[in-house]
Amino acid sequence: MPLYDCNMERARPAGYLHTGLDRYEVFDFQKDGLGKLKSFVKRKKLPFSFHVPFFRPSYFPYIGVTAFFLNDDPSKRDLSFKLINSTMHYAKGWKADFVVTHLNWMEDSKNKKKIMNLASDTELRFCKLADKYNLPVNVEFGGYSGFFHEPTQFVEFVKNHPLLGICIDIGHTFLISETRNRNFFRDVEIMAPYTKSIHVWNTKGLDHCKKYNHIPVHPLQKTNDGWIDIKKTLEIILSCNKDCNIVFEYNHTYYDKIPGKVKEGMEWVRDIVKRT
User: What SUPFAM superfamilies does the record tag this protein with (predicted)?
Assistant: First the structure.
């Protein structure tokens, strides 16, 4: 029996190579784009990470950010575990230095007790995968829906294994805090000591994000206009871990053709890191 409905429409892979500070992160490629990608990262000779999925296999027709680790359906959970195992296998082969994965997205169980049991099982299985491949796994903070959305829950999830850590996606963390009526900076403070990587982009809120998706950061984005205070957010995280890996998670793959305004924002972040 197939793991998914063969008649369902297959989502188009995003194919993002995200530029970071002296590094890259690969997300959701098609196989026919891997040759160019591999040549590029070899030529750059910079560290890079893989965001699950590294590439979209035929057995996973959903959009790349979909995660079923906390889903009621065992077959859907199996899909997500198969996907992270595949990504870690290729990460080891390509010599990526860590893997980032979503834990939850939009289809978590509606049963609170079951969510906690599924989270506990997923934690153990992530630990085994990290040990198997001897690769760090950074769990991206999430929780737009369901019962697993507290920063303390993510801390508990990663804190007992040296190869597990948190990835704070600044935009999503802000939107989740807003959705849950929590203090964004307090959420960041709780997770900061366990944070190993950061996804950097900006937004003014949920409606703004739905319209424009991930906006490149820039020093002219003022909090009085509704933008996230990127500088303060980075300072909170970096004060706990100066060595966090920083990736700019934007809507485009630039390779070497980064627009001037986007470069200005990247260099602004670099300066924040140097001064923190």
Answer: Xylose isomerase-like
196 phi, psi to nearest 5 deg: -110, -25
Residues in contact with 178: Cβ distance below 8 Å, sequence separation at least 6, in sequence order: 184, 205, 206
How far, in Å, CA of 68 to CA of 108, rounded?
7
Half-sphere exposure at residue 95, Cβ-oriented, CA atoms within 13 angstroms: 6
Radius of gyration of the chain (CA): 18
* Strand pairing report for 195-200 and 245-248: parallel
Going along the chain from its start, the domains and CATH numbers come out as 16-275 (3.20.20.150)
Q: DSSP alpha helices (H): ranges in the chain?
A: 34-44, 74-94, 112-133, 151-158, 170-179, 184-191, 206-212, 230-238, 260-275
Q: Which long-range contacts (CB under 8 A, 24 or more apart) does 209-215 make?
A: 209/171, 209/175, 213/251, 214/171, 214/249, 214/250, 214/251, 215/250
Residue 26 three-state SS:
strand
* Alpha-carbon gap, residue 56 to 27, rounded angstroms: 9
Which residues 6+ apart lie within 8 Å of 241 measured at CB?
192, 193, 195, 196
Q: Is the predicted pLDDT of residue 205 greater than 90, yes or no?
A: yes
* pTM recorded for the entire structure: 0.95
> Has residue 3 got a pLDDT over 80?
no
At 209-254, the pLDDT tens digits run 999 999 999 999 999 999 999 999 999 999 999 999 999 999 999 9
Give me the sign of the Cα torsion angle 73, 27, 200, 128.
positive
* Burial class of 181 by CB neighbour count within 10 A (0 to 12, 13 to 18, 19+): exposed
